[in-house]
């Protein structure tokens, strides 16, 4: 037998009797000193340690019982005190340990050794049509049966459908209540207590504590208008409004850029002295640079609509009734400045207005400002028409022949209005015009939040749904959606009046 080595040839670590590997650097002492630990026989085979696995298997030689040779990856959670890259005596380890190094022993100290490694487990064979597992209990069979599959929870039963309550007959007018809420605030599939909602009222009710959140759909809305689950601020009461009568419908939306909806509309139905039906729609747009523009638009729309609805049944001609209604609306907005409160840095409450009346085959429009009315015929190929002329800088430039329409509306000053309702208006000059449309069609009454995305009559006609004559409310909803899809830079409001289509020709009366 060769003499026992007293120190490692690689790191000079003292060795104990019977050591075959250095406890510090892991050097193979037999490789460094042939014949060491083999009883003096170079190249001799080291007897297997008890248990058969703690011994060293030469590279390339088959493992015990025909098992393949393994190179063990480092454990994810090494034993305390184990050095990085060292997997214990008799086991080859990869030197790619991740994480901070653990300090080893000082030179000359005892060797560091991790816990004995467990016997390797041969990789499992996936189940397939070409592999069979031996029965459990055999030497090569599985030692532990596979765990049972997790229990399958049956899906919850579907909720029964809920039928909405029936609607009652509409009244003679349909002006949206300024206190009415966005329909997204209170839309609920559960049955409602009390009388059903009226079809002419804006869909929805004022926000109440406990209403369902429009963002997450689960949280309750507190008294300040915030969801107690996700914290989402709920829409304001006027952010979205809709109204409908049998002969007219309207929709209004805050848009995507403004913090509130400063538009408003008013819808009415009446009967002329001759018994002919009368349809009235008024749309107003608050001036954002003024004080309380939302109050101004609401006051003007409600006042003008009520004025026409009162005067026409008494025999007042439609053009005169429209003119008087615009003057009454102007006076209502002017009165807001005296009532206050007003912001010192802003102008008095102000808005624009446009209205339309249909009765006995005649269409009458009236306006102040840049809100518009369009005629869109139902017949394919019939030309549409814009029925109003803006009170704006761009319109004045075009009327004076100083610019073309395209040049004027491309100018940053294009939408500066030259006519409006309010205490600081220079002079209120109502505009009215009457028409006899040829054939059936719809009258579109809207604010610039819509016509900015469909300025010409042809563009507006292309945006109006083909079934708008039969479904005016859906047409109004889709036109508001068209403005939102275009960018929603402003409040968007539109009223749609289906026209019955008399046999007489078109053109101003």
Automatic annotation (TrEMBL):
InterPro entries: PPM-type-like_dom_sf (IPR036457), PPM-type_phosphatase-like_dom (IPR001932). Residues 78-90 have a biased composition (Low complexity). Residues 247-499 form the PPM-type phosphatase domain. Residues 51-207 are annotated as: Disordered. Pfam families: PP2C_2 (PF13672). It comes from the Bacteria. Residues 179-192 have a biased composition (Basic and acidic residues). Residues 113-123, 135-169 have a biased composition (Pro residues). This is Serine/threonine-protein phosphatase. It comes from Streptomyces bathyalis. The lineage of its organism: Bacteria, Bacillati, Actinomycetota, Actinomycetes, Kitasatosporales.
